[in-house]
UniProtKB/TrEMBL annotation:
InterPro entries hit by this protein: CDIRP, LRR_dom_sf
Source species of the chain: Pseudoalteromonas aurantia
Keyword Repeat: yes
UniProt key word Repeat: yes
Organism lineage: Bacteria, Pseudomonadati, Pseudomonadota, Gammaproteobacteria, Alteromonadales
A GO molecular-function annotation: signaling adaptor activity
Protein name (Swiss-Prot/TrEMBL): Leucine-rich repeat domain-containing protein
Keywords recorded for this protein, A-Z: Leucine-rich repeat, Repeat
Domain of life: Bacteria
SUPFAM superfamilies: L domain-like
Length: 195
């Protein structure tokens, strides 16, 4: 593990680096192309505008908190199991191809559409404080925690999510139709429905 600040140019020499963490730096771009063995990457509280992860195909955990990125392409990061990218400026995210995801955290962005294909391993989805209006929850057969507070959902059909234990759907303009789906979730242990 190497935590670095001013020496970004020398970063390229650490070709076998597996874990890298940056926090409270001033860089707006970063070149990670030579770090092909990188498995865990954390960047937080940095004015990063963009990031190219094309060559980081071994990534299993990616955490990008509180940056200025507005796009994130994970097309080549097929081994990702944890994608945690809260407090950025993302308006769209496609994770269809990330079928190994177990955790997806996208809270405090501006996402109005989240493309989700079949995600049989996904256990936790945190998408609080976005602009989401719909979510295909039937594509999440093993979801256990669903946090969707402060979005724009009117209807949420969760009837097929029988492994769901924690649900937060407060501060959404839900219609009465959602109630019939909620009544089928007798397995819930924690349920939050407040503004």
């Amino acid at each position: 593990t190497l935590t670095i600040s001013p020496c970004l140019d020398e970063l390229q020499q650490f070709k076998n680096l597996r874990t890298l963490a940056f926090s409270k730096n001033l860089f707006t771009t970063i070149d990670l192309s030579s770090l092909k063995a990188l498995e865990h990457l954390t960047i937080s509280d940095t004015p990063l505008n963009s990031i190219d992860l094309t060559y980081n195909t071994e990534l299993t955990r990616l955490n990008i908190f509180n940056t200025h990125i507005s796009q994130l392409d994970t097309t080549y990061n097929l081994k990702l199991q944890q994608l945690n990218i809260p407090k950025n400026q993302l308006s769209y995210l496609n994770v269809d191809h990330l079928t190994k995801l177990r955790y997806l955290g996208i809270s405090y962005n501006e996402i109005n559409y989240l493309s989700l294909a079949e995600h049989p391993l996904l256990k936790i989805l945190e998408a609080n404080d976005n602009n989401l209006k719909q979510l295909d929850t039937f594509r999440l057969p093993n979801i256990e925690e669903l946090k969707l507070h402060n979005n724009n959902f009117q209807i949420l059909n969760l009837s097929l999510n029988q492994k769901l234990f924690i649900l937060n759907i407060g501060n959404n303009p839900l219609t009465p139709n959602t109630q019939q789906y909620l009544e089928q979730l007798s397995q819930l242990r924690r349920f939050y429905l407040f503004d």
